Amino acid sequence: MSPVLEVTGLRTHFHTRAGVVKAVDGVSFKLEQGEIMGLVGESGSGKTVTGFSLLGLVDPPGRIVEGSVRLNGTELVGMSERDLRRRRGREISMVFQDPIATLNPMFTVGQQMRMALESHGSISGRAAAARSEELLTMVGIPSPRARLRAYPHEFSGGMRQRVAIAIALLHRPSVIVADEPTTALDVSIQAQILATMRTLATETGTSLIWISHDLAVVSSLATRLAVMYAGRVVEEGPTADILRRPRHPYTQGLIASLPAMAEPGAPLTQIPGTTPSLLSLPPGCPFAPRCPRATAACAAEPVLTRDGTRAVACFHPAEPA
């Protein structure tokens, strides 16, 4: 079976007065139907720009300069804005980080869901209300018929995010890109939304890309991880394998820095140094200045090399178990 989404050599650059910012620098991955993939890394690693690039939502001075994004066999890179708008929401949707910034405070939730439905074809008011009520029920909002008449400010943060997820699901898209949608929520609400998304992916067959800097959150949801650093995927594979046996030094550092990995009272482990400026990346491996295993070989650029279900871009990866 062909993958639902196939990304090959994607490069998104921002041309600024200071120079060219290589926010996404050769990202490649595949997404199967119903699969949940986590896209993780530090802030500034290129995760969000990758997600925006998939939907063609990168504004000037940014643009996709190279690569391919194939959705259900159709190439999206180079497609006109008009054709992209026909596919956004219907074939590929996005759940943004802050629902209060994406939901219009002037319209009720029901009005906004109806407008989303009408953007891809005519639909009667009764059918729109029925579909909207069905989706609110699916994402776990109580009294869905009454809540269709409520405004966004009448919902809690967790409920607003559920509404955003329901809107993303209205047209039964093949792929949903979720950009850190639980970052601002408390732990209990976060767990509820993760459970909801896992169930929805299973029941609807929708594939999900979950963007986050929080490995603990992603590990409880995603079946596969892609770890990004300086605009590149440095390691990719099944979630359980990567968490148990990380091969790239950067992935090892991310996992070791989790508070749960430290002994009580002991200082937290940290990755030395800071992420490099995307305006002036070091030659060769961008992680080399921070890497404890760096050698002269790292002056060359590592290639993401696949070995079975795992892939790693490193000249000195840890040996597989």
Main traits of this protein?
321 residues; P-loop_NTPase; alpha/beta; eight-stranded mixed β-sheet; Rossmann fold; nucleotide-binding; ABC_transporter-like_ATP-bd; four-stranded antiparallel β-sheet
Helix and strand layout, with pairings?
Blueprint: E1 5-16, E2 19-31, E3 36-40, H1 47-54, E4 62-71, E5 74-75, H2 81-87, E6 92-95, H3 99-102, H4 109-118, H5 125-138, H6 144-147, H7 157-169, E7 175-179, H8 187-204, E8 207-212, H9 215-219, E9 224-229, E10 232-238, H10 239-244, H11 249-256, E11 305-307, E12 310-312
Helix pairs in contact: 4-5, 5-7
**Oligomeric form:** single chain
Strand % is: 15-25%
Q: State the separation between the terminal residues, measured CA to CA.
A: 30 Å
> Would you state the CATH class of the domain at 5-34 and 42-82 and 221-312?
Alpha Beta
Work out the helicity level: 25-40%
The CATH architecture designation of the domain at 5-34 and 42-82 and 221-312 is 3-Layer(aba) Sandwich
CATH-defined superfamily of the domain at 5-34 and 42-82 and 221-312: P-loop containing nucleotide triphosphate hydrolases
Number of helices: 11
For the biggest β-sheet, the strand order reads: 6-7-8-3-9-10-12-11
**Averaged pLDDT:** 90
Molecular shape: globular
Query: How many individual β-strands?
Result: 12
Structural class: alpha/beta
